[in-house]
Automatic annotation (TrEMBL):
<keyword id="KW-0812">Transmembrane</keyword>
<dbReference type="InterPro" id="IPR015500">
    <property type="entry name" value="Peptidase_S8_subtilisin-rel"/>
</dbReference>
<dbReference type="InterPro" id="IPR000209">
    <property type="entry name" value="Peptidase_S8/S53_dom"/>
</dbReference>
<dbReference type="GO" id="GO:0006508">
    <property type="term" value="P:proteolysis"/>
</dbReference>
<feature type="active site" description="Charge relay system">
    <location>
        <position position="110"/>
    </location>
</feature>
<dbReference type="Pfam" id="PF00082">
    <property type="entry name" value="Peptidase_S8"/>
</dbReference>
<dbReference type="InterPro" id="IPR036852">
    <property type="entry name" value="Peptidase_S8/S53_dom_sf"/>
</dbReference>
<protein>
    <submittedName>
        <fullName>Type VII secretion-associated serine protease mycosin</fullName>
    </submittedName>
</protein>
<feature type="region of interest" description="Disordered">
    <location>
        <begin position="400"/>
        <end position="428"/>
    </location>
</feature>
<feature type="domain" description="Peptidase S8/S53">
    <location>
        <begin position="64"/>
        <end position="322"/>
    </location>
</feature>
<keyword id="KW-0720">Serine protease</keyword>
<dbReference type="GO" id="GO:0008233">
    <property type="term" value="F:peptidase activity"/>
</dbReference>
<keyword id="KW-1003">Cell membrane</keyword>
<dbReference type="InterPro" id="IPR023828">
    <property type="entry name" value="Peptidase_S8_Ser-AS"/>
</dbReference>
<feature type="active site" description="Charge relay system">
    <location>
        <position position="73"/>
    </location>
</feature>
<dbReference type="InterPro" id="IPR022398">
    <property type="entry name" value="Peptidase_S8_His-AS"/>
</dbReference>
<keyword id="KW-0645">Protease</keyword>
Length: 428
């Protein structure tokens, strides 16, 4: 059976702050989530990713209000303190277990973290919040866990395709796919084409299988036409070493040790392109709210056009167009018209009269330079000759001999100069 893997790096680093646990959480149905993740401590400081993107100045222009972002993942805990506000998390659909179950619970925290990076609302005393805090999340549950026994969860392509079609039919205008595969799956490609025909922006992670620069890797759905492929950078602005390289990398976003919400309560640190992707999906929601008349393709092109240069370099295989910039994406004026090609340079036809005049002037200048040089040379020779003749007549053309130095040493005299201190006494 052909499978896909959730694009994440196994393991998280728990926040070293006070633990807050609440009894209110999106409880899974009986019999599910036998080994569910516990609540985590609350991270109160402002995370580096939110500092880098400087989101508050962007929210003066757009908060993503009214935009539905589908998170196709492991489910979303709808009772997390930053996600439980009325209407923030839609019921969604559970495609893992049989029956008509919602996707508002999460055994793993992977989907909850992704959703929180997209749309978590502010909570007093907590620095973390989502990129588009007024956007609405539509969860679609396609996996129970991102990692099973140290290996990425395996997902049937038909399940992913069904989730994409469902999200499209439920009115999502942005779809977040934090998953990747090295194979081109026809059912997923066709589902993406369908979503794009319904004006949906699709954002996908590029995967975390890179171990060197010499091995080219494929990544789907990031490589599909019109899909925004997202790579991950760390706090220094450099590509996370596992973030895959390729022409399918369209943008980069924070993805190394970024803060995300966990099931039940609290936060932890996550790494991988899975968590870079929602920064771009959230920015797409900001743009869709600020410019409702833009098509999905125009939104994607705006995100690429307004990306900021990556501090790690300009290699497009690593960083794409650069690092997503929410503020520029919602504020900059872009010219929708295609660039006007420059007219080819036409060399002017030489004017023979002008060329003859220039040649005549150059010849005159050259002749004058030679004449002046000859005159100066002759004058120098005459001057030297006159000096020699005068000295020869004075000495009656007899060679002179240098005066031999005296055997007695002359007394040293101080040089003629101004003294800042009293001059030395003359010797007796």
């Amino acid at each position: 059976m052909t499978v896909l893997r959730v694009a994440t790096i196994a393991g998280t680093v728990a926040a070293a702050v006070a633990c807050v646990v609440t009894s209110a959480y999106g409880a899974p149905p009986a019999g599910l989530c036998q080994n569910a993740d516990p609540a985590r401590p609350v991270v109160r400081q402002l995370p580096w990713a939110q500092q880098t993107l400087d989101l508050p100045r962007t929210w003066r222009h757009s908060t993503g209000a009214g935009v539905v972002v589908a998170v196709i993942d492991s489910g979303v805990d709808s009772d997390h303190p930053q996600l439980r506000a009325g209407g923030k998390i839609m019921p969604g659909r559970n495609l893992v277990e049989p029956g008509d179950l919602p996707a508002t619970f999460d055994c793993d925290s992977h989907g909850t973290a992704v959703a929180s990076i997209v749309a978590a609302r502010a909570t007093k005393g907590v620095g973390f919040r989502g990129v588009a805090p007024d956007a609405v999340v539509l969860p679609v549950r396609i996996a129970e866990r991102a990692v099973v026994d140290g290996q990425a969860e395996q997902i049937e392509p038909t399940t992913v395709a069904t989730a994409i079609r469902y999200a499209t039919e439920q009115g999502a205008s942005v779809i977040n796919l934090s998953l990747s595969s090295h194979r081109d799956h026809t059912v997923i490609r066709e589902a993406i084409v369908y979503a794009q025909s319904q004006d949906v922006v699709i954002v996908a992670s590029v995967g975390n299988d890179q171990d060197d620069r010499s091995t080219p890797l494929r990544s789907y759905p990031a490589a599909y036409k019109g899909v925004l492929g997202v790579g991950a950078i760390d706090a220094s602005g450099v590509r996370v070493s596992s973030s895959q390289l390729g022409t399918y990398v369209d943008l980069s976003a924070p993805g190394g040790a970024v803060v995300g919400a966990t099931r039940r309560a609290g936060h932890t640190y996550f790494s991988g392109t899975s968590f870079a992707t929602p920064f771009v999906a959230g920015t797409a929601a900001l743009v869709r709210a600020a410019y409702p008349g833009l098509t999905a393709d125009q939104v994607a092109r705006r995100l690429v056009a307004t990306a900021s240069p990556a501090r790690g370099g300009s290699d497009e295989l690593e960083y794409g167009a650069g690092v997503v910039d929410p503020y520029r994406a919602v504020t900059e004026d872009l010219d929708a018209a295609p660039p006007v090609p420059l007219r080819p340079m036409v060399r002017p036809t030489p004017d023979p009269v002008e060329q003859a005049r220039i040649a005549f002037q150059e010849k005159r200048i050259s002749t004058a330079f030679v004449s002046i040089s000859i005159v100066l040379l002759l004058a120098t020779l005459v001057l030297v000759a006159s000096v020699v003749i005068r000295r020869g007549r004075r000495q009656q053309w007899v060679a002179s001999r240098a005066v031999e130095p005296s055997a007695q040493r002359d007394k040293d005299e101080p040089p003629d100069q101004l003294f800042l201190f009293p001059p030395p006494k003359a010797e007796s």
